[in-house]
């Protein structure tokens, strides 16, 4: 379990920088294009390791396996992360980060129904305290964020929670490297097809007043230059490649609910990074919210440690 918490901390630190990097190039690069590039880089980085794991485990990937990867890739790359990056266009990056970090609220009940993971009183208390922290950070009575951005962020959080639980179903069979790599690449393949379809004249004819401009004529490489290449590489290599790897390593060593602690720690770290990098000073309600989020994470950690002690005692 100690290794799981190390992976949780590493993933939390990396994920806490995602909005900052994404916001710096959001105006220059289409959100779907950005997702395509970052997950292509992330998948390519994990491919050599994935091939080694497949050979070592002597895995024979069937049509069913590839359909499964198409499902997880669609949920993560095409739906959740595209909604996430689109949300940043319509509201503050910090607001999107905090709402997205509430995805464990959806992970826990989904894991209960799909994986039969038990929900005890401490887990429920952890979720309640963490949600209260989210409310403090968002400060709904003082924030006037765009409703479209908030809605997109909520939908992104729900679909990412579903992706996390569905990935947990077979992560033991493939391993986290293989699961991440082929989910990224198959999701990217679906996204590439949709990007190519966006250039059809039929879509352009319906663009005026019917569909957003960002889903018409989506570029693949256009717009990439010396000013944004570093941020793109960081999002692809560090955030997508390493961040997701550590997240699923944590899930392998624990459970879907425990690994979701990453998104309780993230709202505490993200404002700190914003202060250090962007010089944004946190308000008092943000500080209170951070404290509550950390308290929620501590409650869930202590709950899991207690369960581990009970299991160890039962077999000693």
UniProtKB/TrEMBL annotation:
<feature type="domain" description="EamA">
    <location>
        <begin position="148"/>
        <end position="301"/>
    </location>
</feature>
<protein>
    <recommendedName>
        <fullName>EamA domain-containing protein</fullName>
    </recommendedName>
</protein>
<feature type="transmembrane region" description="Helical">
    <location>
        <begin position="90"/>
        <end position="115"/>
    </location>
</feature>
<dbReference type="InterPro" id="IPR051258">
    <property type="entry name" value="Diverse_Substrate_Transporter"/>
</dbReference>
<feature type="transmembrane region" description="Helical">
    <location>
        <begin position="229"/>
        <end position="248"/>
    </location>
</feature>
<keyword id="KW-0812">Transmembrane</keyword>
<feature type="domain" description="EamA">
    <location>
        <begin position="3"/>
        <end position="138"/>
    </location>
</feature>
<feature type="transmembrane region" description="Helical">
    <location>
        <begin position="122"/>
        <end position="141"/>
    </location>
</feature>
<comment type="similarity">
    <text>Belongs to the EamA transporter family.</text>
</comment>
<dbReference type="InterPro" id="IPR037185">
    <property type="entry name" value="EmrE-like"/>
</dbReference>
<feature type="transmembrane region" description="Helical">
    <location>
        <begin position="260"/>
        <end position="278"/>
    </location>
</feature>
<dbReference type="InterPro" id="IPR000620">
    <property type="entry name" value="EamA_dom"/>
</dbReference>
<feature type="transmembrane region" description="Helical">
    <location>
        <begin position="147"/>
        <end position="165"/>
    </location>
</feature>
<keyword id="KW-1003">Cell membrane</keyword>
<feature type="transmembrane region" description="Helical">
    <location>
        <begin position="36"/>
        <end position="54"/>
    </location>
</feature>
<keyword id="KW-1133">Transmembrane helix</keyword>
<feature type="transmembrane region" description="Helical">
    <location>
        <begin position="284"/>
        <end position="301"/>
    </location>
</feature>
<feature type="transmembrane region" description="Helical">
    <location>
        <begin position="177"/>
        <end position="197"/>
    </location>
</feature>
<keyword id="KW-0472">Membrane</keyword>
<dbReference type="Pfam" id="PF00892">
    <property type="entry name" value="EamA"/>
</dbReference>
<feature type="transmembrane region" description="Helical">
    <location>
        <begin position="66"/>
        <end position="84"/>
    </location>
</feature>
């Amino acid at each position: 379990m100690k290794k799981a918490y190390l992976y949780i901390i590493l993933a939390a630190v990396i994920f806490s920088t995602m909005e900052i990097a994404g916001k710096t190039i959001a105006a220059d690069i289409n959100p779907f294009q950005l997702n395509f590039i970052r997950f292509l880089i992330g998948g390519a980085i994990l491919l050599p390791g994935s091939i080694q794991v497949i050979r070592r485990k002597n895995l024979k990937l069937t049509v069913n396996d590839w359909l499964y990867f198409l499902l997880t890739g669609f949920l993560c790359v095409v739906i959740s992360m595209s909604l996430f990056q689109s949300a940043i266009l319509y509201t503050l990056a910090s607001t999107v980060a905090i709402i997205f970090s509430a995805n464990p609220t959806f992970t826990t009940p989904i894991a209960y129904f799909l994986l039969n993971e038990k929900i005890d009183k401490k887990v429920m208390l952890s979720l309640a305290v963490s949600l209260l922290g989210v409310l403090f950070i968002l400060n709904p009575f003082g924030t006037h964020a765009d409703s479209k951005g908030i809605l997109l962020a909520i939908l992104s959080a729900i679909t990412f929670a579903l992706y996390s639980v569905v990935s947990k179903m077979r992560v033991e069979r493939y391993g986290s490297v293989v699961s991440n790599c082929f989910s990224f690449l198959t999701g990217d393949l679906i996204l590439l097809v949709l990007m190519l379809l966006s250039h059809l004249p039929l879509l352009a004819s319906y663009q005026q007043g019917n569909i957003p401009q960002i889903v018409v004529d989506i570029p693949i490489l256009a717009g990439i230059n010396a000013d944004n290449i570093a941020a793109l590489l960081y999002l692809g290599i560090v955030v997508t490649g390493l961040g997701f790897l550590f997240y699923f390593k944590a899930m392998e060593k624990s459970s879907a609910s425990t690994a979701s602690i990453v998104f309780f720690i993230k709202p505490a770290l993200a404002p700190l990074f914003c202060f250090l990098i962007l010089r944004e000073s946190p308000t008092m309600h943000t500080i209170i919210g951070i404290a509550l989020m950390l308290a929620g994470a501590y409650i869930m950690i202590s709950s899991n440690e207690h369960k581990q002690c009970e299991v160890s005692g039962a077999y000693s």
